[in-house]
Design brief:
Elements: H1 10-20, H2 44-59, H3 67-82, E1 94-96, E2 103-105, E3 110-111, H4 116-127, H5 137-143, H6 156-163, H7 167-191, H8 196-209, H9 218-228, H10 238-254, H11 263-274, E4 284-288, E5 291-295
Antiparallel strand pairs: 1-2, 2-3, 4-5
Length: 296
């Protein structure tokens, strides 16, 4: 996976786009310390607007955020990321898959070259200072933004495996996934008027591409879709908008130099959409990389 996390800025990006109505111009983001999770001091009007939107979201059905649907979403993502439904088996997974993002590891593929792994290890170390990964923090900071292993080899992969045996590290992975990917994606999907399937489509795209504003990032893909179709919140047809989003997502995948397989769209998400399963109701049957998966 290749993703862009601007030192804790995905929430700032999301807020800027939400308040601006999703215009295609990239929002201005002020970089901040990794893991801060906030975008500075909001203007009072923006804070009030955000509170109003939070109240709107709280009044909506939980959708993908319900425990059962979140479990389904995790299994769907794992099928595409690791050819398994057992997403919990991935806490200790780590390898360099040759995509230019360094080491890819954990339940949604945190990367040493894209800042989210750094945020994860920093958060974990705040709670457990003597953990096996803490000695590698200087190296993680040095290689952030590159595919380098300098300072990580040898020993980093073994340390990751040891850390994965710690419940606190597994909890840190869950929390970082939610903060950077799941919660922003589901929130924005709800504000765009999308049901549970649409919320999953956004989340999967956020995991795959990261919250970047370029053509190959989640927000760039959303912009491209909005140029072709109106969201439900804008009075458009939900199915037509999701078709446009999947088209834009597919184009972003095909534009890559590596990992250009689009079956997570062609024989998974598009299948659910064309079946009219906007609620992502079970049973679910889909294929990724030619392998068939089922959730009863």
């Amino acid at each position: 996976m290749t993703r862009l996390v601007l030192f804790g800025a995905p929430i700032a990006i999301a807020a800027s786009i939400l308040f601006s109505g999703g215009d295609s111009e990239p929002p201005e983001v002020t970089p901040q310390a990794a893991g801060a999770g906030k975008a500075g001091t909001a203007k009072p009007e923006a804070a009030e607007q955000d509170d109003e939107r939070d109240e709107e979201i709280d009044a909506l059905p939980p959708g993908l955020a319900s425990p059962a649907m979140k479990e389904t979403a995790s299994r769907l993502v794992a099928s595409a990321e690791a050819s398994t439904l057992d997403w919990r088996s991935r806490y200790g997974a780590i390898e360099d898959i040759g995509d230019g993002a360094g080491y890819t590891a954990g339940i949604i593929g945190f990367c040493s070259g894209t800042n989210d792994m750094l945020q994860l290890v920093e958060s974990y170390t705040d709670d457990a200072p003597d953990n096996p990964l803490a000695p590698f923090l200087p190296a993680l900071r040095a290689v952030d933004g590159t595919d380098s292993h300098e300072g990580l080899d040898p020993g980093f992969t073994d340390a990751w495996h040891r850390a994965a045996e710690d419940p606190a590290f597994r909890e840190a992975q869950d929390a970082t996934r939610d903060r950077l990917y799941f919660e922003p994606a589901v929130r924005l999907a709800k504000l765009d008027g999308l049901g549970t399937l649409g919320q999953f489509v956004y989340y999967d795209a956020m995991v795959l591409h990261g919250p970047g504003v370029g053509a190959d990032g989640f927000y760039g893909i959303r912009d491209a879709a909005m140029e072709s179709a109106d969201t439900s919140a804008e009075g458009g047809d939900e199915v037509a908008y999701l078709e446009a989003f999947l088209d834009a997502n597919r184009s972003a995948i095909r534009a890559r130099k590596v990992q250009r397989d689009t079956t997570r769209i062609d024989t998974e998400q598009r299948v659910f959409l064309r079946e009219g399963n906007l609620g992502l109701r079970k049973p679910l049957v889909w294929q990724v990389y030619g392998e068939t998966f089922r959730i009863a």
